[in-house]
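Regression test attached.
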Amino acid sequence: MSLGQLETRELIKETARRLFFQKGHVKATTQEIADEAGINRALIHYYFGSRDLLFEKVLAETMWSRTDEIESIFATNDSLRIKISRFIDVFIDNHIDFPYLENFLITEMAKAPERLKQLQPDKRGRITAIVYRQLEEEIAAGLIGYITIEHFMVNLMALCNYPLLAMPVLQTILGMDEKAYREFLSERKKVVYRAIFNEDLPN
Amino acid sequence: MSLGQLETRELIKETARRLFFQKGHVKATTQEIADEAGINRALIHYYFGSRDLLFEKVLAETMWSRTDEIESIFATNDSLRIKISRFIDVFIDNHIDFPYLENFLITEMAKAPERLKQLQPDKRGRITAIVYRQLEEEIAAGLIGYITIEHFMVNLMALCNYPLLAMPVLQTILGMDEKAYREFLSERKKVVYRAIFNEDLPN
Amino acid sequence: MSLGQLETRELIKETARRLFFQKGHVKATTQEIADEAGINRALIHYYFGSRDLLFEKVLAETMWSRTDEIESIFATNDSLRIKISRFIDVFIDNHIDFPYLENFLITEMAKAPERLKQLQPDKRGRITAIVYRQLEEEIAAGLIGYITIEHFMVNLMALCNYPLLAMPVLQTILGMDEKAYREFLSERKKVVYRAIFNEDLPN
Amino acid sequence: MSLGQLETRELIKETARRLFFQKGHVKATTQEIADEAGINRALIHYYFGSRDLLFEKVLAETMWSRTDEIESIFATNDSLRIKISRFIDVFIDNHIDFPYLENFLITEMAKAPERLKQLQPDKRGRITAIVYRQLEEEIAAGLIGYITIEHFMVNLMALCNYPLLAMPVLQTILGMDEKAYREFLSERKKVVYRAIFNEDLPN
DNA sequence: GATGAATGAGTGTTCATTCAT
DNA sequence: GATGAATGAACACTCATTCAT
């Protein structure tokens, strides 16, 4: 593989990723991608075989890196509070780059629910098991009120993801511009932590 | 306008609503809508001018009724806790019917952010003002921890909407079938109330 | 179905038939067909669903009428000589109109041999049985030399079809123009009969 | 020209010939040819300029060798019967290797009838002249019935070529498998000779 | 009001061909 | 000589839209 090839391959994927996940063009056509990348439409087929295969490639890769990120947070010996605090950081700081990824995932999952299973291997199970144990300890110690693992995780995901997911709607409703919304999102780290543990985020 | 005319108009809108918001066919074609409604494709143009105009009409109407619903909850003399409790009820019970509406809204808003402003008139301002006052009283009385009105509302919306919005993803992650997920959603009423007020939902 | 619809449907089929079987454009594109018929390319899909379905329709219909023609020749009480004489007439006179049909059939058959079976139902068996009996009588009576039914039929088909099938090649080899070749073909009726029965065609 | 160059040139032509005439892939793409030959697609253009030029080259060469073969049969002092017997042998035995050549020729000729003239030089005239004389002698001697040279040659070609040409169709109609059809073809040598001379093939 | 027929613009994809190396 | 990258033209097909009736 020459350098040029790698660059073009990567360029196409980058462009697709940007259109799909950043700009929210869920149905971005090959023409749109080619125009944005400044290449010929046929090259997409040369490198990826078909629009769908490019699509799957980009989705899979993004999912992998995301899953790895999450796993690396939870698969440590740290306390639950530290883990959650990191999770919030990652989701709010990093995922600003691809605000539509979650949205995208939901739309696609609605069409082909069996696809996620390929993208999310058994790691999920292990993560849940770890968090489950730590959560039980917190509840037993009376540090947080009773809650099931499922609702705990969904609360966490909801509080972190929703403001990203629904950004265009919320930005309009709350009457915030780009900058104000960014500020709002950074404030949310404390707010989410507080909503989860009912106490202030340390330091 | 004859009765038949009204009926066909309404039938088309109903069908479009179902396909768009219930089944998640964001890109439902005029043919698909016509087939589902059992009418001729050209009639959609006869009544609505174009696919996009039908789309906007349906979206606007759904938004209006939703806004009205929300307003009627908040524009009373009830306590904040009762209002929030009703809000949770409405969002979780009623909005199960159109699970993809939120998702849809977000996707469309991403394309044309200026559109929402037409759909959400100045009512928004009045609602916020009312809730704002009540929220300040709660905080002042030490009944809930300090939180801005924006974060309070976003938390509430996140905890209610996210499980609906992300249903396909969560259903897969949590390994729940249709029935189990419905059960999970109904449990959430208590969970959300608790997360917001840090106390159990009365009765 | 309106008159216009039938006309357009028929027009498309006619045009396709002409391009496929008469002009030998085995790979005629939908554009070519549409241009030749003076209609929009998309209409072909409107009426036939796809290029292949149009193709199959036209092929099947042409085959049916041909099979019927052959059957009506052999399924009588006439003598073998009369039947063969008619067969020669039909193949040479009528099939001049679609000189590439046979060729076409062969090319397509090479790709999908299972297709012919659908087009040629069990009629074939009955025809062969009838001819078989009559042929045996001729041989037993010493009227023609010993020959199997298979070779007899293949000889007949070869002598009739080949000059049509290979028209472009033969026309060039034999140095004949359109008119001369047509004359040559009409002479062949006697020649074929003679080659089969080793005696002159009556009257 | 280096040895390697010659080898690659020849390899490409061989591969094309096989795909075109043996496997019947009339529309074989440059990619298909390159893959089959194990070379780069661009090399076809390097050596032959374009797909069409490769095509023409291969067709021309195949035609030349075929014409030479025929000429060498007829340009001897042997009797007509021996010549015809050899002709039948060559066409039936040898041409089994390229069953689609004839078919191919016909299809291509239909598109560009002027092409054959370049491929079939004045040899044709000489061959016909020789056979013509011998045929007249046979007729004069009452050894065969009256027939023109054109019909005689066309009968001969028809009886030999048609079973090869129409192999896929005939195989289906006659219900023969590969092996049975091969057997059938070998029987045809006697059958054709008999149909031409109305007597058994010697030895 | 309602329909089938017809169209033009656009989609993903294929392919022969060219070009830089 | 040989290769991978890149392109333009064409293909079958889809779709919203228009039109005549």
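Expected vs. actual: identical. Chain D has eleven helices and no strands.
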